[in-house]
Design goal:
Keywords: ATP-binding, Cell membrane, Kinase, Membrane, Nucleotide-binding, Phosphoprotein, Transferase, Transmembrane, Transmembrane helix, Two-component regulatory system. This protein has 257 residues and is an alpha+beta fold. It contains 8 helices and 9 strands. The structure holds adenosine-5'-diphosphate. The site of adenosine-5'-diphosphate has 20 residues, from α5 and α8.
Length: 257
Amino acid sequence: FTVYGAPVIGDHQRWLGIVIVFQEITELKRLEQIRKDFVANVSHELRTPVTSIKGFSETLLDGAYQDTNTLLSFLEIIYTESNRLEMLINDLLELSKVEQNGFRVNAHPTDMEAIIKRAIEMIQSKITEKFIHVKLEIQPVLVLGDPNRLIQVMVNLLINAVTYSSSQTVITIRLLVEDNQAIIQVVDQGIGIEETEIERLFERFYRVDRARSRNSGGTGLGLSIVKHLIEAHHGRVEVDSTVGIGTTFTIYLPLAD
Ligand code: ADP
């Protein structure tokens, strides 16, 4: 606790009493620490690709461009790192938008089956690349949602499912109605997540295995964005996972009627 005290003095310097304020600072400290960590993370994540782009282009300008092989391989690195930077900037802008207090989604009756199919189409090349089989267990459901936001949520979950699975495995997508709400599940047979990591999963920049996840191309912001988007729909997200067996993300959404 922090304690503040101040006398309350009325007309003619008359003492009326004392105001004492007890303030709980552990929560404030925790929030301050989260903010500091976030700033440190953003700086680190932005600086890494910039340093690499600068370093490789400087080396090329110093003369390395004359060797065609070096030129090509350095250009490739510069291109990859610029893409990474772009993704990071987009995700940061997106996160700051969805985290705002007044953020609202444009919700109306939406065919969830169509959303799921569209999301699969959007990442089809990643699915094909890893010879992953996508199994649909779907019934027609109208949810109350913003189609573009829901596609974004599904794409995020599906990309993760593909990224953290080995090739030739199965990803099952379920869509059903239970207790008057829509349930969407993305079930993978991937590496899984330790129980102790699960509660931190939705934190900004949190990654279970920093190096591996970073190399996989994600920004570490995807699940934070998913959580905010689903909460803006008055829904919720749950994770269930077993290391070595796989992970299930479950989303609950309100029905349209
Ligand atoms: P990233 O861009 O690193 O994938 P996310 O916010 O989408 O960031 O996910 C955070 C972390 O959660 C990932 O780095 C990964 O460690 C873990 N994760 C997310 N989805 C899965 C999954 N389906 N299977 C295993 N681990 C996952």
